[in-house]
Amino acid sequence: MFDNLSDRLQKIFAGLTGKGRLSEADVDVAMREIRMALLEADVNFKVVKEFVARVKERAVGSDVMNSLTPGQQVIKIVLDEMVHLLGDTNSKLALSGRIPNVLMLVGLQGSGKTTATAKLAYLMRKQGRRPLMVACDVHRPAAIDQLEALGREMDIPVYRGEGTDPVAIAKQGVRAAIDSLRDLVIVDTAGRLHVDEEMMDEAAAIRDVVKPDQILMVVDAMTGQDAVNVAAAFAEKVNFDGVIMSKMDGDARGGAALSIRQVTGKPIKFISAGEKPEAFEPFHPDRMAKRILGMGDVVSLIEKAQEAAADAPMDEKTAQRLGKGDFTLDDFLSQISQVRKMGGLGGVLKSLPGAGKLKDLESQVDEKELDRTEAIIRSMTLKERANPKVMNGTRRERVARGAGVHVSDVNRLLKQFAETRKMMKQLKTMQGKGKKHMRMPGGFPGF
Fold first, then answer.
1. Collapsing DSSP states into helix, strand and coil, what is residue 366?
2. CA–CA separation, 15 and 162 (whole Å)
């Protein structure tokens, strides 16, 4: 979403860091370019004006202008102010000690509210909660069916109630959670195509009945400044506590995400960047600011890697086998699965510092290659995966037909696998020799 803005800002920074000294005129030029980049990203003009003014005030200070690295100092100032713009610190979900806790989601129709309800329930269950989703959108056709389908997919119960009174359904849903020993209720309310009094009154009535611990507004990041205006209207009528920014994987300019905190005073609590349940995470202003400025997000990448590993823990036999440098195609398949959970190859690369400098990053990474590799491996028998040496010409032709690829694709994968396996064994051998050479007098291993 922020690709264009990120590219523009990195070019501006490259011009600053290329200068040994900075004059006030250099700062003025950079500020004008930053202002244009933010406005073109659809950031609220008042927010842009204040942001540029704060950066310029700090950038022309004597500590910066007389520094040996003034360009880097300016970048640091922009980063600090970007973090401030997005909310300074991450705003965690505040829940009370009562059981069940109640969360209520509001927003316009089409903002991704029902999907966000299911993703939030999925995330909370991973944190040890026992959620129940309550379907109160009785106005949109198939909204309740959609939530139930998502609930079945994630194995999370949904209460749909009886009748067409959303206030009564919400109240009954909380009671159902108590009866079924659920400690968290997430209420999906109705939306409209635009803000109207009926929708606001209904949301307020549900709020008054269930007394939610938190009201979260789902905002479609693709709608730009319109999303900010809608959020401001909801803040006035319903007084929500935080924002879930949906569709962050879209190709919009990202102005809503950069404006909403300053315009409404409400923090962004979660972001959603994909259709899968895992594509939903707490919002960290500092990490997002670094992504926008092309500095990567290694912390989030590490967290995703740890989460992917926790979802598919390695058994003892597999660990011993890999420790000896042995590696099978099933292990390769497991690695592909973990890469997908981390956002795919493109997502991994974009999280690395400096990745924004690559031209056309998406074209550099062929995500479909992972699909082909997975299809080829899954078309093999267990014996073939464990010992690819048995793959003769007949077997390779059969696997190619099963995977819908050419035999040359199968040959290439097997060659790459053989080279990888050989390299792993060489590394294991070198590691063993290194330990032998590193022994200290008396037989104690050195470090």
1. coil
2. 63
Rounded distance, CA 439 to CA 447, Å?
9
- 401-444 per-position pLDDT tens digit: 999 999 999 998 888 888 877 776 766 666 555 544 444 344 33
Kindly state whether residues 274 and 174 are assigned to the same domain. Answer: yes
First to last CA, the chain: 46
Distance CA 236, CA 243 (A): 14
202 alpha-carbon distance from chain centroid = 31
- Alpha carbons 439 and 444: distance in angstroms, whole number: 6
Give, in order, the Cα–Cα distances in Å from 219 to each of 102, 112, 145, 372: 20, 8, 22, 36
**Alpha-carbon separation of residue 357 from 34, 272, 295, 318, 364 (angstroms):** 18, 25, 10, 38, 12
96 assigned to some structural domain: no
Residue 142 lies in a domain: yes
Residues 27 and 164 in one domain: no
Average pLDDT, the chain: 79
Q: Is residue 368 part of a domain?
A: yes
Residues 6+ apart with CB under 8 A from 87: 261, 267, 268, 283, 285
Q: Final residue of a domain: which of 275, 293, 311? A: 293
Q: What is the pLDDT of residues 22-69, one digit of tens each?
A: 778 888 888 999 899 888 888 888 888 999 999 888 887 766 666 657
Name which of 226, 126, 134 is nearest 180 in CA terms.
134
Q: What's the CA gap between 213 and 402, in Å, rounded?
A: 52
Is the pTM higher than 0.70? no
Return the number of other C-beta atoms located less than 10 Å from residue 19's C-beta.
Answer: 11
CA distance 103 to 121: 10
